[in-house]
Design brief:
The protein is an alpha+beta fold. The chain has one domain. A two-stranded antiparallel ribbon has the order 1-2. The longest helix has 35 residues. The chain is elongated. The structure holds zinc ion. Zinc ion (ZN) binds next to loops.
Length: 85
């Protein structure tokens, strides 16, 4: 199950995971959830609050994205440096 997350025009796919067991939800791609829904985990059987799951996914996405941006910046600076000399 994926969640599309948009940060600074970069679209990101974040895998939604169970808040109880930490495993990704096994759901058909076209399953849609809305705010207030409960998602049953097929692994541990717990019900997850959709909004909380999204919040966690967003936080995870932002952390990963900032890592990626830092990496890109580093490479760009590296190239700039190379071009100068
Ligand atoms: Zn679970």
């Amino acid at each position: 199950m994926l969640f599309f997350h948009r940060v600074n025009s970069i679209e990101q796919k974040v895998t939604l995971v169970c808040l109880f067991c930490g495993l990704p939800f096994q759901r058909p791609e076209d399953t849609e959830y809305a705010s207030g829904d409960m998602i049953e985990c097929s692994e541990c059987g717990e019900f997850n609050d959709y909004d909380s799951v999204i919040e966690v996914a967003k936080e995870k996405g932002i952390t990963e994205l900032s890592k990626e941006v830092k990496h890109q910046l580093k490479e760009e600076f590296g190239n700039l440096f190379k071009n100068k000399f």
